[in-house]
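Collaborator request, handled under Task 6.
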Amino acid sequence: QVQLVESGGGLVQPGGSLRLSCAASGSIFSFMSMGWYRQAPGKLRELVARITIGYDTNYADSVKGRFTISRDNAENTVSLRMNSLKPEDTAVYYCNAQDVRYGYNYWGQGTQVTVSS
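Structure tokens returned to the collaborator:
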């Protein structure tokens, strides 16, 4: 079983920045493909960014150039740096882990990000 704990959400003004972190425990982090998803009220959960075990990254078009995902295998953490935030980035952000050995999928409890003046 993998436990994921997110932190770093909050209220920020448009144009501001936030850094989300996700700490993983319970399995071998280096075998985990890690990602951040978000879900706004009334909308489906969507992929924001993902980083593979080989450190390849991909981003939603809406966040390219503004968000950066990174991972630290020594600390078992994945982070999402969010710059130039817009009101439409407002959502609950979820950390996701996919065990590439077995195909298991894990989710954190989510952290709220609100972009508003």
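The cover message to the collaborator said: "The two ends are 40 Å apart (CA to CA). The CA atoms of residues 39 and 97 lie 17 Å apart. Please let us know whether this matches your experimental observations."
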